[in-house]
Write a structure and sequence with these properties.
This protein is about 60% helix and about 5% strand. It is mainly α and about 260 residues long. A hairpin with a 2-residue loop joins strand 3 and strand 4 (about 165). The longest helix is centred in the middle third of the chain and has 22 residues, at about 75-95.
């Protein structure tokens, strides 16, 4: 989970999380908590009726399922970790994007992850075919999309995974690799990892292909040239004992 350094807090202290709840986060938290209470304690069939069931979605045209599955959770730990991640990674993104774009992104990624899950469930491969007859619930598809967006905007920010410090981009690579492995494993533990991967993929494609809005321009060649110029300047400083003035972190500041 993110812990922010002194640029976000006073002195050398570290703070847990991004601060207070933003508008969309409040609404999403409220809907998820109410749906969990109703579906897990008051009316259990709600999870069957509103979960992402690919067979029913396609053959019975129950087209609400790719949306409603986002608000259902299996148990207290499931909703706890999803809502914690929603707050930790979503709050700052909403502040950057604005509430309208944030909600648009959240649902496009969540629904897109569901559509991809349905698509891969028709692939004639055992672990993926099982998804066709499964009832998938949880906000994880959208949450993984938020995590990918967070990593694109703040790739070098450090988060603590339990007690281990990791850069955000490293954490995304690890979680993506785990989801990929689990999606192809017969012992996936009941987790629809294909939906997690779908969230990552839809988020990446959407953010890097926008014509309007907070588009991210990811140009590998530009990155290579940036690293080359940086190396040449560093070599020149060593050779001629040139010392740069101004702020010491100018070369480390990147615009995302």
């Amino acid at each position: 989970m993110p812990r922010y350094p002194s640029s976000y807090t006073s002195g050398s202290q570290f703070s847990f999380g991004p601060g207070g709840l933003s508008t969309a986060i409040k609404v999403l938290l409220a809907i998820n908590i109410v749906a969990f209470i109703v579906g897990d304690y008051l009316y259990r069939p709600l999870q069957v009726q509103l979960g992402l069931y690919p067979l029913a979605t396609v053959t019975r045209l129950q087209l609400w399922r790719p949306v409603t599955y986002l608000f259902l959770h299996a148990d207290i730990l499931h909703i706890l970790f999803n809502m914690l991640a929603l707050w930790m990674f979503g709050t700052e993104l909403e502040r950057i994007w604005g509430t309208r774009f944030f909600l648009k992104f959240y649902f496009i990624v969540g629904v897109g992850a569901a559509v991809l899950t349905i698509a891969v469930s028709r692939i004639p491969f055992g672990p993926l075919q099982q998804l066709w007859f499964s009832n998938i619930i949880g906000a994880s598809g959208a949450i993984y999309g938020l995590l990918l967006a967070y990593a694109l905007y703040f790739p070098n920010r450090t988060i603590y995974y339990f007690i281990f410090p990791l850069r955000v981009r490293t954490y995304v690579i690890i979680t993506g690799a785990i989801a990929f492995y689990a999606s192809l494993s017969a012992n996936g533990g009941g987790v629809a990892s294909a939906t997690h991967l779908g969230g990552l993929l839809v988020a990446y494609v959407y953010l890097t292909s926008l014509r309007k809005g907070p588009r991210l321009r990811l140009n590998p060649w530009a990155e290579v040239k940036y690293r080359w110029v940086k190396w040449r300047l560093a070599s020149a400083r060593k050779k001629f004992d040139v010392y740069s003035g101004g702020r010491g972190d100018d070369w480390n500041r990147r615009i995302h």
